[in-house]
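[audit] Reproducing an earlier prediction to check determinism. Same input, same settings, fresh worker. If the tokens differ from the archived copy the diff job will pick it up downstream; this log only records the rerun itself.
[audit] input (93 residues):
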Amino acid sequence: MAYLEITLHVDPANRFSAAGVYEKYKQTFLDSIAGATSKELLIRDEDVQVLHGFQSVADAMAYLDSALFTEDVVGELAPLLQTEPDVRVYDIV
């Protein structure tokens, strides 16, 4: 099991739009990405985090290279971001 955590710094005025991108692609992520097991949106005062569950670290890394992530998700989120996202992969042992 592995987790991919992506922390996004989004102006509070744009958080509704960022949440919309999450909702738009959540089911596609779960249905079409190999090894995907879950996807959760975590909203804090200082940032927004998306926590993705995978069967393996390799699955998480492959998602980061997928067209769904690089073209669709990043393409729609990029105008909303104040800084580069913080991307971390965790291996569950």
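[audit] rerun output stored. Observation attached for the diff report: Strands lie at 2-8, 36-43, 48-54, 86-91.
[audit] end
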